[in-house]
Design goal:
globular, 330 residues, 1 helix, mainly beta, Neuraminidase, four-stranded antiparallel sheet
Length: 330
């Protein structure tokens, strides 16, 4: 699999060869919650991840993490020419752009999107009025706890799709101008508090996690379609043949896999869930017991799994103060 994160081959992650005996192991300890992870576009073999209010890269060889911007334990809003003086409230998501050096950072607690130039280490505001939550489109856009961001690789590359959590909305942002347009907002029963987002580059569909469920949205649709879970109930139920009978409890991240499969980090159930749309089934990995015990996919424990990444044939899970690795068979 290519390590260049902008091709369909990477956005459409191959399924790691996992079996019931695949082992969950600690990858690295972190300082805070790991909200998002991607292969590092600038440093081959590295992983880029958000560690609370900081952005870091970790070497796949030495396992040493280096802070790029922000401070994991310091929350706020400050702009500076010195990377160590920059502060963020919470980097809940990010997207690396085509020229590799640019990264869109979702500064969720400050209600805006910020643009990092990794060559100059300069950070500017791309979209939103930082520290001023609201709901407005256009050049003076406002967000209310934006959370996830994905490049639209299926249509024009200039667009970013953002989940605007507290506005129950899906927003489109022009990466060149920062202008925002609302694609969908839920004003009643349906998608609530959307967070994670992942695109299937073969169809252009976006998969989005919300408070109780996973939805599928195609640009131009009237509303997102329920894939798995419930509009209004939480819990833990797997589904066989009818995924909409399954139950989730605050799923946080979603990852499109090959073969019409979708991986989900089911945060408050402390499990990984795999949705097979073709079969209409939902299965689970890990025991559901809150903890950090290693083991196979029946006995392993997770603690608030937030984010997912497939890299080099393995599945990585970002959780509370650590990144775990579910090793794929070679």
């Amino acid at each position: 699999m290519s390590t260049y994160p902008y091709s369909a081959a990477v956005l459409f992650f191959s399924i790691p060869r996992l079996t019931s005996s695949s082992q969950m192991r600690l990858y690295i300890n972190t300082e805070s919650n790991v909200y998002h992870m991607e292969p590092d576009a600038m440093i081959r073999g590295n992983m880029l991840y958000s560690d609370g209010s900081s952005l870091k890269t970790v070497s796949g060889h030495s396992m040493i993490a280096t802070t790029i911007v922000g401070q994991a334990g310091r929350h706020g809003f400050a702009e500076s020419n010195q990377p160590e003086a920059l502060t963020f409230n919470l980097i809940s998501g990010f997207a690396q752009l085509d020229k590799k050096k640019f990264v869109i950072l979702v500064d969720s607690g400050n209600h805006c999107l910020r643009l990092l130039d990794r060559k100059t280490m300069r950070v500017t505001v791309l979209s939103g009025m930082c520290q001023q939550p609201g709901f407005a489109d256009g050049k003076n856009a406002q967000f209310n706890y934006p959370w996830g961001v994905s490049r639209d690789s299926f249509r024009a590359k200039r667009f970013l799709i953002v989940t605007d959590r507290n506005n129950n909305a899906i927003r489109e942002v022009n990466k060149n101008t920062g202008e925002a347009v609302t694609l969908f907002t839920s004003r009643g029963e349906g998608m609530k508090n959307p967070t994670g987002i992942s695109q299937n580059p073969m169809t252009g569909d976006f998969y989005i996690t919300s408070q109780y469920a996973v939805f599928r949205y195609h640009i131009g649709d009237v509303s997102p379609a329920l894939v798995a879970g419930s509009h209004s109930a939480f819990g833990f139920v797997n589904g066989a043949g009818w995924a909409q009978q399954s139950l989730f409890n605050d799923p946080s991240d979603v990852l499109c896999l090959a073969g019409n499969k979708v991986a989900v980090s089911d945060r408050h159930n402390n499990r990984l869930r795999v949705i097979d749309e073709k079969k209409g089934s939902v299965t689970s990995i890990c025991s559901g017991v809150s903890g950090n015990r290693d083991g196979d996919w029946y006995t392993c424990q997770l603690l608030n799994p937030y984010s997912l990444l497939v890299m080099n044939g393995h599945l990585y899970i970002g959780e509370h103060r650590r990144i775990r690795k579910l090793k794929g068979e070679q």
